[in-house]
Amino acid sequence: MPARDRRAIVNLMTEWILKRGEEGLTALELMRRRLPAAPPAYLKQLLRKGRIRRGEEPLQSESIVRQGDLLQLPNSRRLQELLTSCRAEHPVEILYENRGFLAVFKPSGLAVHRGTGHETDHLLGRVRALMDGRREPFGVAPAHRLDAPTSGPVLFGKGRKSTAALGQLFMAGGVEKTYLALVAGTLEGRGLLSSPVPARGKWKAAETGYRCLAADGEFSLLELSLHSGRTHQIRRQLADGGHPLAGDRRYGGPRPSGLRRLFLHCLSLAFIDPFEGERCVIATALPAELERFLASRNLHLPQDPAVKN
Q: What is the tens place of the pLDDT at every residue in 26-48?
């Protein structure tokens, strides 16, 4: 094909440059993440037909993308409509999806369910609107929750049976939950927080494992593993132990300049997928605003796969 004709085709395409945090994804995972409003079958069809290209190379569903890759997408009407919908006021970032569930990123400040102060905008409403736009034949519901100030992944079941299966998995302790938190004071090494916390009018046992990743004398950066799932467990136990979370107004945490939110982020959820029977790890990078705050204090995450961005 003459060079002039190749340039004309490229000019009719939408181009994506891969960003930090997207490297290592498959082409299908990337498409789902960037185009959550698109039905998965449509994205698979684009890839199967070779419509998504990296230079002269057509990508397949399992092709691995790299940081800095330039991808070319067809400039079809349907794709442009999907791109427009994903730039809407309340986009949804899908981290992973299969036939039984989808994992969605929840930003800090957004509640999972409708409640006081979150009557019109909450994660459940956004995900339901997304599924309605796809015209999916099932309802969705969250299988667990995160506090409004906390960021991280939330699992949504597709239909009642799927939601119930996920809920049972959480209730049985079948989900490994790892968090990253910045707390006041110095808390060195490893340990276990085992103080009781209030739950439904009673005091109940709760356990949280911790590992110190870095400290500067004023704050300690902790990796936390939940062994139980009580409401406000992390925030309450750390505050009771004299190490409240940075930005935690409710439990008396320090509010340093440059930090406008609670420094608590769910890094990953790991479990055996009840629908596929395989181990599944849903991991999320530390949000940019928290990463910038750590950098401003010369605190850094170690090069450890368990906490790597």
A: 999 888 888 887 888 889 999 99
Q: What DSSP letter does each residue of 60-104 carry, written as one string?
A: PTTPBP-TT-EEEEE--HHHHHHHHHHTSSS---EEEE-SSEEEE
Q: Which fold has domain 90-172?
A: Pseudouridine synthase (3.30.2350)
Decide if 3-86 and 90-172 have a common fold: no
pTM of the model: 0.74
Q: Give, as one character, the DSSP assignment of residue 259.
A: -
CATH of domain 3-86: 3.10.290.10
**Cβ–Cβ under 8 Å, residues 220 and 212:** yes
Q: Which CATH architecture has domain 173-309?
A: 2-Layer Sandwich (3.30)
Annotated catalytic sites, by residue? 147
What's the rounded Cα separation, in Å, for the pair 43 and 27? Answer: 10
DSSP at 229: -
Domain ranges of the chain: 3-86, 90-172, 173-309
- Res. 259 pLDDT band, cuts 50 70 90: very high
Token pair of 56, please? 């002269």
